[in-house]
Amino acid sequence: MIADSLTAVVDENQALAGENGELSNTVARGKQLVIASGKATPLKANGRPTKKGKKTNSVEVCMTIAKNRIAEVGEQILYVKLLAPNGKAVDAPEKNMAKVAGEMSGFNGKAKIKYQGEALEVCVKAKRATNTPVVLKPGIYTAAVMTDSYVVGTVAVELK
């Protein structure tokens, strides 16, 4: 009888441990920053807007980081990585390397923010390589916004 009671308590404890793990994962995802809205504007070398891929020198990504009462407050770095229509990264400046979304990677732009749990407007200028920039072909490009450990969200822009 004691062995049966002990087995039942051990089984219940294991079930609670599994449920606790699932709840911890849910809370961790809930603490992540997310983009409420965003817009990407391709820019020429002189800083003027353009729609043409072959004239695009950089992309200004402006977004609203959503309000989040359980997210960590304080200073954070957001990275922007431009992705071509085929999913491959667009040429980033040579010196821009960091741990992005959990792995060492190149990035096109970054912004240091002070997040306080309230909605926050942020703009990041995503630059391209200067030594051998590739001509951007027409299509829909994606600006992936990331921290050092996860993707915050994406913003799309169409080039002609």
Features:
3-stranded antiparallel beta sheet, 18% helix, 160 residues, 9 strands, single chain, alpha+beta, 4-stranded antiparallel beta sheet, 1 helix
Which H/E pattern describes the elements? HEEEEEEEEE
Task: List the strand order in the largest sheet.
Answer: 6-3-8-9
List how many beta strands DSSP finds.
Answer: 9
Q: What structural category do the secondary elements indicate?
A: alpha+beta
Overall average pLDDT: 87
Offer a concise description of the structure.
The protein is of the alpha+beta class. It contains one helix and nine strands; from the N terminus they run H-E-E-E-E-E-E-E-E-E.
Explain this structure to me?
The chain has 160 residues and is α+β, with helices and mostly antiparallel strands. Helices cover 18% and strands 42% of the residues. It has one helix at 2-30, and strands spanning 35-43, 58-65, 74-83, 97-100, 103-106, 109-115, 120-127, 139-146, 151-159. The strands form 3 sheets. The chain has a 4-stranded antiparallel β-sheet, with no helix packed on it. The protein has a 3-stranded antiparallel β-sheet with strand order 1-2-7, with no helix packed on it. Strand 4 and strand 5 (103-106) form a beta hairpin. It starts with a helix and ends with a strand. The model has no long low-confidence stretch (mean pLDDT 87).
